[in-house]
Specification:
Largest sheet: none
CATH architecture of the largest domain: Alpha Horseshoe
Order of helices and strands: HHHHHHHHHHHHHHHHHHHHHHHHH
Structural class: mainly alpha
Distance between the termini: 42 Å
Helix content: over 70%
Strand content: under 5%
Mean pLDDT: 91
Number of strands: 0
Number of domains: 2
CATH superfamily of the largest domain: Tetratricopeptide repeat domain
Radius of gyration: 22 Å
Length: 456
């Protein structure tokens, strides 16, 4: 995620904040009056202090503490929170393994009834591990064990959104808002991040941008702004601008994220994407290489391979493509985390069509979100299941999400079905929204649309 990406405030507030903030990348809000209308003018990006040394020092201290006293559930809870913070900052799933181990150790010492912090940490780990059903169950249990508190509804809402229950997610966020929102600080930031994601999913890019700017402004107003949270907001603003084809704004936002947090891997990959879209393939390669050197996320690796491919560096491209598969099969957890990415990689590159379809189908059986429907539609097309592809692309488009890749998939599915009019409409919509949405797929969309228009 759907990490994500929110940093914390200080060590003192870390455990509480982890109860309400999720790991991934996640999401209508009412107007808040003049103060927030003025907040739409964002201050220039500036570097924020890193607390890496302090965090790592705290981790070492707590690791030693639990070695000396394996019954210290409070130390385990703090360790889990710090590990999750480092995972957001570095992208390394090693920290996710460690967080899971710590949360489970805490609950083994003291059960959930008397250890709600431990249960909250486990729910965050489950969410970050894409075990959304389990995270929802733990969030529901937290509402019973910690009544009157709002943070469990963030856990529930985030999980329901990833499972495709958008009405349920909206209701959970409303419960959270009714309980805890209004006093500013991280709960306000987290709420607007989530509401921005909901607006984006429903095709309201302008509202999504506004809400993210509100989240960013509130984060910057905190006495010691959390660096990763601020960088995450700027990166997401860049992604939303890119999705709307506003490459200039996207590049500015990605660079602002890097000003805040140098070597922020998400922003580096964003710059690689937008530089390539603006025609500078070599710069795109440079930024993707930097991102991959920090964390070999399969999306980054595949995108780097694609840029090598369009540059004529076929041998290097193939090496990256091989690495995508290796990462996807590295462990049981990586297989879960990167399953959808691998399915789409197979479909985009016209290889292992059946494997890609089976991956997407298994995931959609549990996680019925619109992007899962899109992945299943695309892999169904590439594996010769046209009727299923037609059915699933309707599910993917049901919220009105403005996503060029979804429109492209819809166009190619319509073309395969012989519906040339719909094919031309969807392909035109994709290219008007974001003409360079993908270095390999955008040229196919243009060629297909040109042939359709030439045949009229």
């Amino acid at each position: 995620m759907k990490n994500d990406g929110w940093g914390m405030i200080t060590a003192k507030t870390l455990t509480f904040a982890m109860g309400i903030l999720c790991v991934v990348w996640m999401t209508g809000c009412v107007s808040k009056g003049p103060s927030h209308s003025q907040a739409m003018i964002l201050p220039p990006a500036a570097p924020l202090a890193a607390d890496t040394n302090a965090t790592e020092g705290a981790i070492r201290f707590l690791e030693n503490r639990v070695k000396l006293n394996s019954e210290d559930h409070i130390a385990y809870n703090k360790l889990a929170a710090y590990y999750l913070q480092r995972m957001r900052e570095t992208g390394s799933i090693t920290y996710l393994y460690l967080a899971a181990k710590s949360a489970n150790a805490s609950l083994a010492v003291l059960g959930p009834r008397d250890n709600t912090d431990g249960l909250a940490q486990r729910a965050q780990v489950e969410y970050a591990s894409h075990d959304f059903a389990a995270a929802k169950e733990d969030g529901t249990q937290l509402t019973q064990l910690d009544p009157g508190k709002g943070y469990p509804f963030f856990v529930i809402g985030d999980s329901l959104q990833e499972l495709g229950d958008y009405d349920g997610a909206k209701a959970a966020y409303s419960r959270m808002k009714a309980i805890d929102i209004g006093s500013g600080g991280m709960p306000e930031v987290a709420m607007n991040q989530r509401l921005a994601r909901q607006a984006e999913l429903h095709g309201d890019i302008e509202q999504a941008t506004r809400l993210l700017k509100m989240a960013l402004t509130d984060a910057l107003a905190i006495p010691f702004p959390p660096r990763e949270t601020v960088a995450w907001c700027r990166w997401r603003l860049g992604d939303i601008a890119f999705s709307a084809g506003d490459y200039e704004t996207a590049e500015r936002d990605y660079r602002d994220a890097l000003t805040t947090f140098p070597d922020y891997f998400r922003a580096l990959a964003g710059l690689g994407k937008v530089r390539a879209a603006r025609g500078d393939i070599q710069e795109g390669i440079k930024f993707y290489e930097q991102a991959v050197n920090i964390v070999p996320d399969p999306n980054f690796v595949a995108s780097l391979g694609d840029l090598y491919k369009v540059s004529g560096r076929d041998k290097e491209a193939q090496a990256q493509y091989s690495l995508v598969e290796q990462i996807g099969h590295l462990s049981a957890l990586s297989g879960i985390l990167y399953n959808r990415q691998l399915a789409l990689f197979y479909a985009d590159h016209d290889i292992k069509g059946e494997d890609g379809y089976q991956n997407a189908a298994r995931e959609y059986a549990e996680r019925k979100d619109v992007f899962g429907a899109d992945a299943l539609a695309w892999t169904a097309l590439k594996s010769g299941r046209l009727a299923e592809a037609q059915q699933m692309i309707k599910e993917a488009l049901k919220l009105g999400t403005r996503d060029a890749r979804m429109f492209y998939h819809a166009g190619m599915i319509a073309l395969a079905a012989g519906d040339k009019r719909s094919a031309a409409e969807y392909l035109d919509k994709a290219l008007k929204l974001n003409p360079e949405f993908d270095p390999l797929q955008s040229p196919i969309a243009r060629k297909s649309l040109s042939e359709l228009e030439g045949a009229q």
